[in-house]
Amino acid sequence: MKNVAVFGAGRIGRIHASNLAALPGVRLQYVCDAVPSAAAELAQQLGAQVAELDQVFADPGVDAVAICSPTSTHSDLIARAAAAGKHIFCEKPVDLSVPRAEAVARAVAEAGVACMIGFQRRFDPTFNEARRRLDAGEIGRPEMLVITSRDPGAPPVDYLKASGGIFRDMLIHDLDVFRWILCADGDEAAWLSATASVLTDPAVAEAGDWDSTAVTIKTRLGRLCQINTSRRAAYGYDQRFELLGSDGMLQCGNQTPSQVLQWDARGVRADKPEPFFLQRYAAAYRLEIEHFFDCLQSGQPFKTTVEDGVKAQQLADAATLSAQSGQPVQF
Amino acid sequence: MKNVAVFGAGRIGRIHASNLAALPGVRLQYVCDAVPSAAAELAQQLGAQVAELDQVFADPGVDAVAICSPTSTHSDLIARAAAAGKHIFCEKPVDLSVPRAEAVARAVAEAGVACMIGFQRRFDPTFNEARRRLDAGEIGRPEMLVITSRDPGAPPVDYLKASGGIFRDMLIHDLDVFRWILCADGDEAAWLSATASVLTDPAVAEAGDWDSTAVTIKTRLGRLCQINTSRRAAYGYDQRFELLGSDGMLQCGNQTPSQVLQWDARGVRADKPEPFFLQRYAAAYRLEIEHFFDCLQSGQPFKTTVEDGVKAQQLADAATLSAQSGQPVQF
Amino acid sequence: MKNVAVFGAGRIGRIHASNLAALPGVRLQYVCDAVPSAAAELAQQLGAQVAELDQVFADPGVDAVAICSPTSTHSDLIARAAAAGKHIFCEKPVDLSVPRAEAVARAVAEAGVACMIGFQRRFDPTFNEARRRLDAGEIGRPEMLVITSRDPGAPPVDYLKASGGIFRDMLIHDLDVFRWILCADGDEAAWLSATASVLTDPAVAEAGDWDSTAVTIKTRLGRLCQINTSRRAAYGYDQRFELLGSDGMLQCGNQTPSQVLQWDARGVRADKPEPFFLQRYAAAYRLEIEHFFDCLQSGQPFKTTVEDGVKAQQLADAATLSAQSGQPVQF
Amino acid sequence: MKNVAVFGAGRIGRIHASNLAALPGVRLQYVCDAVPSAAAELAQQLGAQVAELDQVFADPGVDAVAICSPTSTHSDLIARAAAAGKHIFCEKPVDLSVPRAEAVARAVAEAGVACMIGFQRRFDPTFNEARRRLDAGEIGRPEMLVITSRDPGAPPVDYLKASGGIFRDMLIHDLDVFRWILCADGDEAAWLSATASVLTDPAVAEAGDWDSTAVTIKTRLGRLCQINTSRRAAYGYDQRFELLGSDGMLQCGNQTPSQVLQWDARGVRADKPEPFFLQRYAAAYRLEIEHFFDCLQSGQPFKTTVEDGVKAQQLADAATLSAQSGQPVQF
Questions:
Q1: Residues of D in contact with A199 (CB under 8 A)
Q2: What's the pLDDT tens digit per position in C250-289?
Q3: Where is the Gfo/Idh/MocA-like oxidoreductase N-terminal domain positioned along the sequence (chains A, B, C, D) (predicted)?
Q4: Is B298 domain-assigned?
Q5: What DSSP character marks residue A305?
Q6: Which residues from D are below 8 Å from C when comparing CB atoms?
Q7: Is D268 within 8 Å of B264 when comparing Cβ atoms?
């Protein structure tokens, strides 16, 4: 039985808490949150106790922590958990600052604890099946990756101001997908060019951010990746990629709430995609936390390590710089 | 808190037991099975007790029972549960004999308990969305229903011999879908013609059954329904229907494990459907047991009553008779 | 160079005339029509001459005739063309009366001319590709065929009154598809049950016809076929079939004017099917008339003979009888 | 009646010649080709005469010429036809050299003849329908365009050496689509970044070319366009684009030879796209030449002028430069 503490009882904390509470062999022991009532409500619902952070770190019975608190707290909590000898699951990103993220990665390595970063797309059944077929050689050698990633609408301006910008906040996932899919054999980015615009709402520009981006990456082996993103798709949450290989292409489509087609005078209408990430990645969230505990149990390495978190952050920094300067970045 | 006993710890019993155990406000108290070790294993896994039937019926703390035992036990267990004042969830069918099913329906009515029959397709998100749009008038008045229902492969001959035949065992679901979709406004079957063949395996004929059927039903209002079934689809479990209305058509497709398309020299390949009912109807099983307890709580009527079970059984009998005689049946 | 006369300068006559006029090695010599101005217009447009029927039959330079005049004239014109030693392409049906159709088939056989009936669906690229894969064994042995055939709207009541009824006028095509696809190896219908309703417009009933039908056919080998038709689909002309075989299924979908998908707040919308037969079967009409002349040239048998026309007519008669009596028909 | 001469009796010349010969009001008078037997064969097949270029330019009865000869001859033939007062249809590109293309555009303007460049994609029914809906406001303001353009296989190295490189030879079409779709309101490219690789065959590198490219363009209004291309798609000719707008997305898919879906143990397989441009753009070629003569008749402007040809060439030059230098280009 693994005893676990969850830090953060907000939207994503509640998802991870209830998913892990349902796993055999895992016990949700503590819930911590800066807002006591939020912690209390979640703890009560899942049969856990409310605790302070110090109490968690001091309790030798706690095996692992799940960090679901705001981004600004991640690196500090990882470092403290590592120092306390707890295994760590941390929501992306490691930290908005690459140097701090790198420092944390070193701290984790020194402490010898296991640390997994929550890039949940690697656990999405569709994306995962594409990776499986790539590994099985079904489309030969990978050559070009096109990622389309669009939110249903921009978050509030206050959120944007603290987000680190669209590349660090939103594309961090796509940049991780790039590495996971196009660099599965150890290849890495060699050249990156990004450009960006504000097309949906002038308030985004006033917050110093962009809402629409176009990124191109060339790898050391000459493979090409294009990422296009927008903060607003009128038809919902759009999460697709396609990978051209020497023998074919894998194309990952969206999930829909139902498989109903409506044929009428206007045409043949299918559902639009699931509305947002909580619905689209519901299975992925379940599978990633299961993976975390499976690996703790078996000693197998995680699919997404703290090093992956650091590398995605480096790419996000490079993309930000490129979009600001209008010039490509070499690695 | 509702206390529940599950009868039957086989494949379907385990599904219902773990789904209901996860519901807030519901407690799985007892598990009963003719095989003590099966009962014990399920009870232990879900924190329940093993019990004999008599003990369950005698315990005034038990609010409801979920009957997931073999078909031949259904009517007797419904009658006993009704007599004991327990609310009842029973897997389809009520009974392979229409008179016995009718007797049980009367017993339930007299006892004043609630009894829901597990026609899970009514809870499938895709089928349910089609019904919702029909009710919302999106395709006008319903006119023609075409149901395609194919298993991935025939069950063992021993199963077939005790099954009541393909119409009672397999088409019972499709006949219920016919009533649920094409007779949503109270219309009913007026004329039915069925024919059947053995096309997949001569052993099916030796068991006195068929593996391929074609049923046509005309309703009192002149609406038309065609059902085609096979025990074997080489591509998996095929569960679709389409409803033509005066203003359009609703077409319900299969679910797939992933949304990957593979483009290669052979064409563009999508996943085949989910392999069988446990996967295809996983969400439906979860939603139907939730519906059962929601209705117990709210006092709302069930979507599928014991009367629905009786009526589907009558249609299955008529189809069997029609296929045997080569003549249509009038209602 | 084959010299050809076209009888009938209406909608279908114009299509066949311009298709054959564009074929290398074929010369459209004459156009005949009861309405002189219609004949003149078509003849002028395609560089042909207007002629009377007698003139065509008497001209030894005429190799073949294409009969595109009203249904009531078909059998007489086939007989006269056969007597004159002309090869014959005739639009479906041979004749609304089976005995007359049979007599005509005998006359053709005795005259030793070639006679092809215009079941254009056998030349539709999609349907044809399905038949090719069936022949290639890609889905194993055929077992069940489901045909969906829906017009965009009912024709005028005057048309209906002279049409011979929906089975002879509309389902004749579907009954031919049944024989072409499910009986490709020489199997034939053994049992047929049909039922029908008036659901779209009471005027159809007043004309003594139906607008919605459901037909089931069992073959000598026990294969099953279901046909569903309606005179009205709000979404256009719906022409599909699917064939279940022992190793898989072939599913033939509709064609659309474009491959545009529109994603918006309402969903993901594809085009509805082509509006009616002239658009849907444009390629089929071109390919069938090319096939006619190819066979004349090569001496190969036609894909659709006058015997096929007679057999489809027999099935249409049986379906009409079954729908009227409520009883199945045995062959 | 318009009299026309076709220059070039190769693959594309034969297509345009037979399409224009079938148009009412158009007469194919002359065919010219450096290979006399090629000219003779095409002329005979379509009832035209073989001629020398000088004879065509000197014949006052010739209204228009269709230039389908090798790329290296285009600018010279346009200039000579303009000087002779003939209207001009010319296959893309105007010239591989931008200055020469610009000079030709000036010559055309001075001569006052009409000159259309054969960017056939603007006439593809699917692409055209997307543009129509964009113009109709169905997806609001355009924001991002993603173009996928892949050939089924690289041409011979000798072809590549004379092609001007992948950007001028292959992407010229995609760059025109960019202007046609994303700049429909007069917007133009402001910034372009391109990168490219050799991933399919080292012989391409030896020919001094690339086979895989990734281009990003930002317009003056901040709209974003990404183009990904490859000389080799194992699944055939892949020609798609998708346009995100403020109210939705238009997605243009490939055409397929048939609408057959094959369901079997491997999955559900649709046809791969049409094999190459002759099949995919068959309708577009027909419609573009019809447009040419319609405009000559009506005096309406062409959809694709010589200025469009020059501007696409400028973008192709910029992309080549960017891919060579690794730096973006500003306009």
A1: 141, 143-144, 222-223, 246
A2: 999 999 999 999 999 999 999 999 999 999 999 999 999 9
A3: 3-119
A4: no
A5: B
A6: 22, 125-126, 128-130, 133, 138-139, 247-255, 257-265
A7: no
- Å between D143 CA and nearest CA of chain A: 7
A263 located within any domain: yes
Which sign, positive or negative, has the C-alpha torsion B129, B135, B138, B144?
Answer: positive
- Going from the C-alpha of B30 to that of each of B20, B21, B22, B26, B49, the distances in angstroms are 12, 11, 15, 12, 5
- Residue C174 contacts by C-beta under 8 Å, 6 or more apart in sequence? C147, C149, C215, C227, C229
The CATH number assigned to the domain holding A128 equals 3.30.360.10
Q: Give the Cα separation of B308 and B314 in Å (integer).
A: 10
Q: Would you say the C-alpha torsion D151, D153, D158, D160 has a positive or negative sign? A: positive
C295 lies in some domain: no
- Residue C24: predicted pLDDT: 85
**A108 and A129 inside one domain:** no
Q: Are residues B49 and B183 in the same domain?
A: no
Last residue within a domain, chosen from B113, B138, B154: B113
What is the nearest CA distance from C214 to chain A, expressed in angstroms? 21
Facing B269 at nearest CB: one of D233, D238, D268:
D268
What is the domain range of residue A90?
A: 2-113
Q: Which residues of D touch C255 (CB under 8 A)?
A: 259
Out of A268, A271, A272, the one facing C272 most closely (by C-beta) is A268
Of D86, D113, D140, the residue at which a domain comes to its end is D113
* Pair C168, C256 in one domain: yes
Domain count, chain A: 2
A254, A257, A261 member nearest B251 (Cβ): A261
The backbone torsions φ and ψ at residue B255, rounded to the nearest 5 degrees and listed phi first, read -90, 155
- Distance CA(D114)–CA(B170), nearest Å, equals 70
Nearest residue, CB atoms, A259 vs list B126, B133, B263: B126
Q: What is the pLDDT of residues C70-117, one digit of tens each?
A: 999 999 999 999 999 999 999 999 999 999 999 999 999 999 999 999
Same domain, D61 and D152: no
* C-chain residues near A233 (CB < 8 A): 263
What digits encode the pLDDT tens for the residues D258-299? 999 999 999 999 999 999 999 999 999 999 999 999 999 999
In contact, B260 and A130? CB cutoff 8 Å? yes
Same domain, B39 and B149: no
For chain C, list the contacting chains (3+ Cβ pairs, <8 Å). Answer: A, B, D
User: What are the tokens at B253?
Assistant: 């497709």
Inform me whether the pLDDT recorded for A241 exceeds 90.
yes
- Chains in contact with A, where contact requires at least 3 CB pairs less than 8 Å apart: B, C, D
For residue B90, what pLDDT is reported?
98
Task: Indicate if C260 and C140 belong to the same structural domain.
Answer: yes
Whether residues C269 and A264 touch (CB distance < 8 A) is answered with no
Would A282 be classed as within a structural domain? yes
The CATH number of whichever domain residue C11 belongs to comes to 3.40.50.720
CA B182 to CA B168: how far, in whole Å? 20
- Which of B66, B69, B81 has the alpha carbon at shortest distance from B27? B66
Structure confidence at residue D1 (pLDDT): 87
Alpha carbon separation from C282 to C121, C131, C172, C235, D289 (Å, rounded): 10, 19, 19, 19, 21
pLDDT, tens digit, for every residue of C177-195?
Answer: 999 999 999 999 999 999 9
Residues in chain D with CB shorter than 8 Å from the CB of C133 are 260, 262
Percentage of residues of chain B with pLDDT beyond 70: 100
Q: What is the pLDDT of residue B22?
A: 87
Positive/negative CA dihedral, D273, D277, D282, D285: positive
User: What is the average per-residue pLDDT within B90-112?
Assistant: 95
Whether residues D28 and D129 fall in one domain = no
A49 and A78 part of one domain:
yes
